[in-house]
Amino acid sequence: MNTTESKTRVFPARQILLAGMAGGAAEIVWFSIMGPVLSLNIHDLAAGVTSSIFPALGGSAYAVLLGILIHLFLSVVLAAGYIVTVGRWSMSRFGLSGQLLTGMCSLMFVWAINYLVVLPVLNPAFIEVSSYSLSLLSKTFFGITMALVFNYLKHEQKRLA
To answer: What does pTM read for this prediction?
Structure first.
């Protein structure tokens, strides 16, 4: 494949889906482990995601499940955004360490926009439910996990070709 083809190649949706879901799952695992250690109610956190998007459903019986589903959907959207903006560029120019750094920094940027700009306006109560430091670390784990999955899938695709 020549350079022109690799720059215009569409990234497979399956890879975006898997990397996004893995990143989102990494955050869920992180909060599931550390939330109770820091006395954070992870059910309130998941319901807070629902309240941020659908305020009327924040108190419903399905708020936690819906919050997890919204989180995973947004995780896939973040993975797609990462690939479109800097992911493909990072994957074509750097080794694994550069990809990990790019993934981590990209998701830390997303955290900053979310926690410092969007959530204070959209749902300030969500910030009170979560921890700044814990949520920032979760975004770094998301970025690292996403980059690892993209890297693995890239190499697996080459191996199978």
So the answer is: 0.88
